[in-house]
Amino acid sequence: MLALVMLLISSLGATALLRQAFGTERVAWGARGQLQAQQAAELALRYCEQQLLRSDGAWPVQPLRAGQVTSHWAQASSWTGPGRLARSVPAAVMVSEQSPFRLLSLPDCLAEEQALADGATVLLVTARGFSPDYHANAQGRTVAGSVAWMQAWLRLGDGR
């Protein structure tokens, strides 16, 4: 009888340790996904900045509109759907020997003019990156995985 009680106690202890190990693994997996999303967003931000600094002006910039209250980047319609303004980073940029990302959703970015308090106009570049396990619903809301957002101000030398 004493041996059965000791076996029961050992089994309960082992079960508790297994649950703790699985919980720790889930936390580590989530942190890994968030880190991958941040790296994808950073790569997208740098790529979009490079495209904007090119002299050909081929990368689209959303103009500053008088009386506009909400920035384009803060509107869901700018990122999804038929009125999408954001541009995806080409897969060739994301998947190479230097950047071995394997993503279901490519990161994207959006550039828009913004007025500073001193009256100067700059470009606000917003990028978002996704973890490999990212999934969204039809409205573009995250269902699984991680999304990371990054922004940078960019002042161009052409007077803008």
TrEMBL record:
Protein name: Pilus assembly protein
Origin species: Vitreoscilla filiformis
Source superkingdom: Bacteria
Keywords from the UniProt entry: Signal
Lineage: Bacteria, Pseudomonadati, Pseudomonadota, Betaproteobacteria, Neisseriales
Residues annotated as signal peptide: 1-16
